[in-house]
Each structure stands twice: as structure tokens, then as C-alpha cells.
Fold this sequence. Notes:
By secondary structure, this protein is an alpha/beta fold. It has two domains: 3-20 and 228-423, UDP-n-acetylglucosamine1-carboxyvinyl-transferase, Chain (Alpha-beta prism); 22-215 and 222-226, Enolpyruvate transferase domain (UDP-n-acetylglucosamine1-carboxyvinyl-transferase, Chain), CATH 3.65.10.10. It has helices at 22-34, 48-59, 92-103, 123-132, 165-175, 193-200, 231-243, 262-269, 314-322, 343-353, 384-396, 416-423; strands spanning 4-6, 13-16, 38-42, 63-68, 71-75, 86-87, 108-112, 135-139, 143-149, 157-159, 182-185, 204-208, 211-215, 225-226, 248-255, 273-282, 285-293, 301-302, 327-330, 357-361, 364-368, 377-379, 401-404. The strands form six sheets. Strands 2-15-17-16 form a four-stranded mixed beta sheet. It has a four-stranded mixed beta sheet with strand order 4-5-3-14, with helices on one face. A four-stranded mixed beta sheet has the order 6-7-9-8. A hairpin with a 2-residue loop joins strand 16 and strand 17 (285-293). Shikimate-3-phosphate (S3P) binds at residues 23, 93, 164-166, 169, 190-191, 311-312, 335. Shikimate-3-phosphate binds next to helix 5.
Amino acid sequence: MSNWTLQREGPFRGEISPPGDKSISHRAAILGALADGETHITNFLPSEDCLNTVRALKLMGIRIDAHSATELTVHGGDLSEPETILDSGNSGTGLRLLAGVCAGQPFLSILTGDESIRRRPMKRICDPLRKMGATILARKGDLAPLAIRGGGLQGIEFESPVASAQVKSALLLAGLFAEGETVVKEPSLSRDHSERMLRSFGAQIICEDLTVTLKPGSRLKGQPLHVPGDISSAAFFIVGALVCPGSELHITNVGLNPTRTGLLDALRAMGAEIAVLEESEVSGEPAGTLVVRHSTLKGSEFGGSLIPRMVDEVPVLALAACFAEGETVIRDAQELAVKESDRLATVTSTLSALGADIRRTPDGMIIRGGATLRGAAVQSFGDHRIAMMAAIAARCIPGETEVQDVGCVNTSFPGFLEMLERVTR
Ligand code: S3P
């Protein structure tokens, strides 16, 4: 088990470019595998989560050439029955999206992941995929490992009770192999990378408000794809720069898809100075440069449709709220309880250990800003975003912080510590 021992260091200054987007990297590899011809991917995220997806696709007979850690060519084609278990490690996206793909295949696949994945809810994908015609056996009915015998699918109209891009994407991927239309409705909009990428690969897809319809019959066509930087990784540095006096950080090549920029909206509502420069479109995804300056923050209330737009950033938003004047209330965030850890619990206990005034509520948390934070020993709970939140806190508060069990950071952000050291020295 490796730990980081960190102290307060100077302001966050300079220029960084976050690694490739995790969500988009998974989808690029998967759609590349399902498409005709070659998909050349640049700025792919070589994190454990995405590499597990690549490994699973290779086990299903797909040739993937790595030209470097971040540059791959996927040779799409028909999938074949894997000889062994597909292991997604810590990745809910990997496992759920691959389950959608496997549901469409006329063979047996067994999908699993680590201890955290084997606790996370799979009923949300198993039920609709079964309705489409897949046979899925699962531990205790709905937990991984999942054994899927797919094929012979029929499109369905499914109203998802949760705003989840993983559920939506699993069904759309299965829908590629189904007869008839696949329609997914969600209660509020989750990230739409699958819809954008499916469209650019040639699928017929219609998005109206909260409903996505995939029409049958189009073949996907491989294409070059550049992955923008991950705003969920940039988020840690955004908050570090905002709360650390004297900071000014330029973050280049960040994905700015509006379904992912909820954190920027929330922080601006708290008074954050964040400018967007050089907006462009990269492979159908908005991107740009952010300039973040230390700002005086004030507490605010967040909930509703904003939450799915910043679902992975709530831990670091809670950290920002510790430095704000007044109270911050986060509601409608019950999905956080079923992430890599129960983040309502792990954020609360980690920030409490550092001296924050924070309380868990049934669907979120309440943070009273202004308490004096001080370094302490904190666990990661095997959750990369908790480890990175604690490391950013450590750089901004007095005393020494030991972040324990930091190996999990490699699931999404290899090179995080080096980048933190570079901008805070
Ligand atoms: C993801 C979707 C989100 C997010 C996860 C990545 C994706 O989960 O938490 O880290 O790539 O589809 P849900 O939208 O399923 O809650």
C-alpha cells in the first residue's frame, strides 16, 4: 500500500494540460472495436480503467495497436467469444458499457471487476438488457460477476429511474445489435459522449430533451479521434487554484461538454473567477483553455439537474465549500453513495478528519465554510477521487497530511502527483 505525505506548498501557478478524458477514451476504444475499418485514437487516457477496457476488447478478438501510451489504432471487426473472464477492475463505465456490447453478442461472456465494482448496483443495466432479450446471470441476482449470453435483441423503450450515462450508454450499445428502435429516457441529462460519438461514427441517433432514440440498421465507420482533456481531472487543480491564495493556473485542452461543466457553474455561483479561452471543437466535443485565479468563495445551494453535470466533481466541490464563507448545501446527490466508494460517507469522513465542519444528509451534504483545516492521516477508501481531493487539500492547509493507499489514483489520473508537484513548487 503506498501513501503520500504532503504539506502546504506555494500557490498553484503555471500551465497544465489534463490527461485524456476517461469517459471518452472508453467509448473511443469500444466504438472503434465495433466499427468497420480503423479508428486512430490520440490523447487516449492510459489509466488502469481504460486499459482494462482495451484488454477486454482484445480478449474478444479485436486487434488494437499501441503506438505509444496515448496513441492507439483499433481495428474494428466482429467480436468473438472471450476465452476468459473480462475484468474491468475498478471501472463502472468499463463494466457497464461492455455489458451492453456483450448483450448484443451471440456468445457467452463473464464480466467482473474489483471489490468495489462487485458491490456496485448492476440491476440498473441488467433489467433493461434482459428486457431486450439478453440472458444475464448475476451474483445475488444483480451484482457482478455477470454472465451474459447475448444476441437476438429487440429494441425497447426504457425510462431510466436514474440519470446515468452508463445505463444510457449500455442500452445504446446493445441497441446497435437489436432489431427495432432503442429509446432511453432519463430524469435529467447525463453526459452525452456516447450520443455524440455514435453520431460521428454514422449511427442514426436522435436526441430530444431527455430522450435518445437509436434507429437500427446503420453500420459504424472507423475514424480518427482526438480525446480532449478530462475536466474531472482538471477539477482538482481548478479547486486548488481557487482556494490557494496567490494562484493563477492555465489549464489547456480541457473538454468543456456542457453535460460535464456543472462544477464550473457551481464554482462561479460561489464567486469563482474562471475564464474560458480558445474554445474549439475536438472530435465533436467542445474544448478550451481555463484560466483560474484565487477567488473569495461564498457558500451556495446545489441540486437538481446540476448534479449529474458534476457528479464526479462533488468531492472536490465539497473541499471548495470548506474554504467558502457561509454554508453550502448539496442535495439530490444520492448517486454518490454508489460510486467507487460511498462518496457521501467518504467525503464527509475525510474532510472531517482534516477539521472541516461537514455533515452528511440522506441525499447530499452540508458544509459550513471557514473551519480551520489541518493536516492529518486520511484514507483513500480505494477511491481515486477521494485520494486526489485529500492531496489538493493537503497543499492548501497547514500541517502534514498523509494520504493512505493512493494506488487507486492510477485508475483515472496517472501522473497526478507529478503534476501537483510541478504547479505548487
Ligand atoms: C460515466 C458516467 C458517470 C460517472 C462515471 C463515468 C461514464 O456515471 O460517474 O465516472 O463514462 O459514462 P453515471 O452517469 O452512470 O452516474
